[in-house]
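Key result, reporting period 2: structure in, sequence out.
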């Protein structure tokens, strides 16, 4: 029954999106059957980007595209690699590209050059500051960072020393989450002191090492904020290794399978969950509008964000958001975690 309900909900979303983007439900341009689209993630080392690709593939099937390829570099820190890969993809002349930008400054010129050359580009999750990009689909990352601050402050009694593990200084997404988190803490929780940000570059090992160093140098730390799933996974693994989960509260973004398991074990106290599936899904619908010269209702599309805790994870809205990730859904089924009616 839950699977049937999920399919019905996705069908309803498809109708709404089709109408929003100026097409009737079920309308497919026959030329799409010979067209290939490409999704370029920040990296291939996180399940989060696969979830975006799942949404992109679903939209691609509904719109009749030949395929939506997944082409990325292994590490989020490989900025040059993403630039070179992007340029190679453009040279192959796909019908269009959706891309999650690692370095908002370095990739700006290649993206604008691609658009000028006639290859449509839509950014998802993390973008660039350019009027040439046709559309951007993402979380309101500033507000999501503020949500993380609210939850962490609540968990630590609105006072104490907290650590801040970011993505990297070049990431638009990271800067927005950083700004939202620190601004909310400063304005709303004056008894909370936030240490200078340390960057994990989206790597579990760096998240572990940073957390170890922070705990050693600042034994009074009572909370940690992580702006990305791999950094959060590394931090949680270190809390588990040091056996300090009762002393140090942890709030992190997203829900990779490893991260979600640590959350269920109690080493993470809150997850700021985006909707990566819908980022990919809406990104392809926006790209299709550009390719087929249909009007875009707007240039910026916001996908939902929820704060997930063990207390609310079975509520219908939070459960459904978690269950969009098929791997997480499988874990919940195995654990007997059931959606409330």
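The corresponding designed sequence is given below.
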């Amino acid at each position: 029954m839950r699977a049937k309900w999920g399919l019905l909900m996705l069908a309803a979303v498809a109708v709404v999106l089709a109408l929003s983007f100026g097409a009737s439900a079920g309308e497919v341009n026959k030329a799409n059957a010979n067209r290939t689209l490409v999704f370029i993630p920040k990296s291939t080392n996180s399940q989060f980007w696969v979830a975006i690709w799942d949404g992109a593939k679903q939209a691609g099937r509904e719109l009749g595209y030949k395929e939506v390829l997944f082409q990325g570099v292994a590490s989020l820190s490989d900025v040059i690699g993403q630039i070179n890969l992007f340029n190679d993809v453009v040279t192959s002349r796909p019908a269009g590209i959706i891309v999650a930008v690692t370095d908002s400054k370095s990739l700006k010129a290649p993206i604008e050059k691609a658009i000028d050359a006639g290859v449509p580009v839509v950014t998802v999750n993390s973008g660039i500051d350019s009027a040439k990009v046709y559309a951007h689909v993402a979380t309101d990352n500033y507000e999501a960072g503020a949500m993380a601050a609210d939850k962490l402050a609540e968990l630590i009694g609105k006072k104490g020393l907290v650590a801040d593990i970011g993505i990297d200084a070049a990431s638009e997404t990271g800067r927005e989450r950083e700004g939202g988190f620190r601004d909310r803490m400063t304005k709303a929780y004056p008894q909370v002191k936030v240490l200078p940000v340390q960057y994990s570059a989206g790597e579990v090992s760096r998240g572990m090492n940073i957390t170890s160093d922070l705990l050693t140098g600042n034994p009074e730390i009572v909370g940690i904020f992580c702006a990305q799933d791999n950094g959060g996974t590394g931090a949680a693994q270190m809390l588990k290794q040091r056996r300090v989960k009762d002393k140090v509260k942890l709030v992190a973004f997203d829900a990779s399978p490893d991260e979600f398991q640590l959350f269920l074990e109690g080493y993470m106290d809150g997850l700021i969950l985006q909707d990566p599936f819908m980022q990919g899904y809406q990104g392809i619908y926006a790209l299709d509008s550009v390719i087929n010269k249909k009007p875009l209702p707007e240039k910026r599309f916001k996908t939902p964000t929820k704060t997930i805790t063990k207390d609310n994870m079975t509520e219908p809205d939070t459960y459904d958001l978690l269950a969009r990730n098929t791997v997480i859904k499988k874990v919940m089924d195995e654990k007997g975690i059931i959606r409330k009616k």
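Confidence is low (pLDDT under 50) at residues 1-16. The chain has two domains: 2-140+275-305, 141-274+307-335. This case is discussed further under Risks and Mitigation.
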